[in-house]
Amino acid sequence: MSKRRNDIILTAVLLLAAVAGLLLFKTLSRQGDFAVVLINGEETARFPLDTDTEFVIETDGGVNTLVIADGKAYIKEANCPDGICVDHTPISRIGETITCLPHGVVVTVKSEKASDTGLDMVA
Amino acid sequence: MRKFIIVASAVLILLFSSCGEKTPEKFTAYYFDWFDTATTIVGYADNKEDFDAVCADISAQFTEYHRLYNIYNHYDGLTNLYTVNHSDGTVEVDERITDMLAFSKEAYTLTNGNTNVAMGSVLSLWHNARTHGERHPESAALPDMEKLKAASLHTDIEKVIIDEDNNTVTLLDGEMSLDVGAIAKGYAVEMVAKSLEEKEISGYLLNVGGNVRAVGARPDGTKWTVGIENPDAESEDEAYLAYLAVESEAVVTSGSYQRYYYVDGKAYHHIIDPETLMPGENFRSVSVICDSSALGDALSTALFCMSAEEGSALVDSLENVEAMWVLPTGEIKYSAGFEKYMK
Lengths: 123, 343
Fold this sequence. Notes:
The complex is a heterodimer.
Chain A: H1 2-30, E1 34-39, E2 42-48, E3 53-58, E4 63-69, E5 72-78, H2 84-87, E6 97-100, E7 105-110, E8 121-122
Antiparallel strand pairs in A: 1-2, 1-7, 3-4, 4-5, 6-7
Chain B: H1 2-16, E1 25-31, E2 39-45, H2 48-68, H3 81-85, E3 90-92, H4 95-110, H5 120-135, H6 145-151, E4 160-163, E5 168-171, H7 184-198, E6 204-208, E7 211-215, E8 224-229, E9 240-246, E10 250-255, E11 260-263, E12 266-269, E13 285-290, H8 293-305, H9 308-317, E14 322-326, E15 332-334
Antiparallel strand pairs in B: 1-2, 2-6, 3-5, 4-5, 6-7, 7-10, 8-9, 10-13, 11-12, 13-14, 14-15
Helix pairs in contact in B: 2-7, 7-8
């Protein structure tokens, strides 16, 4: 009788551990490691999100000032006509993206793991 | 103890069994060449060369659709919508133009006139005012309401005559013009997605300016995750309001944050309500999930201009269509079946 009870406890504990591990993995895997800068689709720079920095992205159309602070990336200033990239909220999770259409600039968050299963696209 | 080892190894084997297989890699490509917006292609392929080959095919197709549906530029040797808008009488066009316009007329009926490709005369006034405002913020202004009202007298879609047998378009009103901004992107995405499906290409996700269409699930059979952008850019909260799981559906968002310009410190966006001739103010954004990116594009624009009640009745009347409305207060409304897509 007690043997059967132990089996049930053991199975329950293992199941709980597996579920907890999966949840933890899912939550952690969302947060990215790098902000990748692309100009006209070509990667030109990448910055670790855990190091505060400021970088001026220079394009043929103009400049965008990228800031990495508190683990997040955002565009502080830009001389594009619409300023939509500056209005965008800071990004830090895998797949999150800021686009500056007039300058052809994309800043997107990636992880070190190639097989990240975070956000695939934004509508 | 022996039982523990058996169960533990079973769990470990289950957890790591997928690690040994060789799985296709995930690639991403960005473009800024079409429909005055950003395009993203995400796809799984065995190597970069295979991915690039599919992207080259997609690229070539989008370039053609972009040129055909362009109302701002003429291309040598090509009859496009610019040609149609600047011609008197009947114009012979590519089948892809008559097909798209025929779909646009259906969308007009379906949405009770809330997407109207015959609104070019009104929308061009907004386009010119916005372009000027972006370039010269100090003299940014709204289009003149009297001019908007005068232009709105030339937006009768019944006067756009499509002959699908002979592939011709005729604008019966000399002062009317076509603006397919609410439909052409989504329509082109749908056509490209269909062509990939015909070639049995799977594991791709296309996005042209918020018109997302999945072409088959990921190679491991799991669904894609598509985020819905938080239209409140100032918000310190989540950048995304919802995460949706899709396999071959389209997810399309129309939002006031996507394109706008400032006049006296106030932002004026690009989705013009056919009733008021001003930017729609009922919502910050509307997202639609359905089988076709063409329908999704038309519906998201139309729902943006309709009242919540009218829009929700329309969505409920359509099969396999779900929607999410973000109100100016930040409150979110969902259609009955929307939540089954949420992760």
